[in-house]
Inverse folding.
């Protein structure tokens, strides 16, 4: 299936919302043990977000788990190709498994720096390097459809799973999704871990602005001044509601975290979990 471009902005936004509620509604269907199957049909463009696109009418046993590869691509801002750009790295790689038999959901992160064999659609090894290189290598060899195929094949073999369902979001898409559902709730428990600034107390200057924030805030390094949002540290580590811009910073930052990329992966899982919960809520379903 060739990639289809939807030109009108209103139509794009409406289509994105319609397809997302259909996609996320499958989670509910599986939990209540109604039979359904999703499979990937090459590629479908939904502005700033791509998902597997066709729901097959024939059903399978609801006892069969559904596994989905969620990828966050580091494109989407003005300095990285704009909102519709997908030519980047899949720095966030999350595997989500829904088991309707046990009524459980498992979500794990695949460390982006894992050394592995990069495979193409046929299983032929193209190179041996970091696992997040699968997506851009595939993109360079055939565009978005090839990028997805390389990533699913490589990551699936690395973790021992047959991955054939996917969802991709870029930075601009994540901001819009979180804002569309009214924000998500997260916990910032990083007080005193401002590794980038080299300080563990007092005030720090937010990169890209003149604003000062308390130590423990999460922010993006000054190499990317476009992102001026931050997630404050709150004593006692309560949940706090953050918007799309803050969610992007929360999901991307590693410089201010003592545990670096492992902490970032945990934040990404937290944002995705909260985002799915919001999208599955009654009010959000009606909104979408």
């Amino acid at each position: 299936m060739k990639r289809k471009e939807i030109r009108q902005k209103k139509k794009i936004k409406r289509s994105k919302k319609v397809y997302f509620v259909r996609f996320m509604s499958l989670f509910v269907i599986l939990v209540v043990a109604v039979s359904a199957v999703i499979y990937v049909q090459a590629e479908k463009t939904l502005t700033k977000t791509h998902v597997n696109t066709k729901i097959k009418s024939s059903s399978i046993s609801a006892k069969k788990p559904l596994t989905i590869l969620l990828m966050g691509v580091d494109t989407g801002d003005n300095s990285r190709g704009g909102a519709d750009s997908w030519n980047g790295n899949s720095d966030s790689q999350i595997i989500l498994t829904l088991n309707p038999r046990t009524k459980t959901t498992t979500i794990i992160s695949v460390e982006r720096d894992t050394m592995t064999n990069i495979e193409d659609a046929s299983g032929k090894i193209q190179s041996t390097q970091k696992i997040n290189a699968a997506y851009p290598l595939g993109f360079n060899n055939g565009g978005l459809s090839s990028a997805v195929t390389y990533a699913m094949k490589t990551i699936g073999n690395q973790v021992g799973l047959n991955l054939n369902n996917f969802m991709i979001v870029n930075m601009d898409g994540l901001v819009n999704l979180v804002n569309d559902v009214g924000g998500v709730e997260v916990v910032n428990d990083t007080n005193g871990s401002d590794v980038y600034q080299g300080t563990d107390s007092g005030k720090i200057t937010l990169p890209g602005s003149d604003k000062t924030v308390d130590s423990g805030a999460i922010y993006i390094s000054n190499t990317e001044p476009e992102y001026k949002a931050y997630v404050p540290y709150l004593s006692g580590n309560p949940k706090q509601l953050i918007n799309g811009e803050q969610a992007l910073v929360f999901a991307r930052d590693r410089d201010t975290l003592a545990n670096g990329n492992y902490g970032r992966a945990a934040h990404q899982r937290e944002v995705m979990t909260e985002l799915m919960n919001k999208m599955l809520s009654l009010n959000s379903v009606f909104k979408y």
Remarks:
- The CA atoms of residues 181 and 284 lie 6 Å apart.
- Residues 1-48, 51-61, 284-288 have pLDDT under 50 and may be disordered.
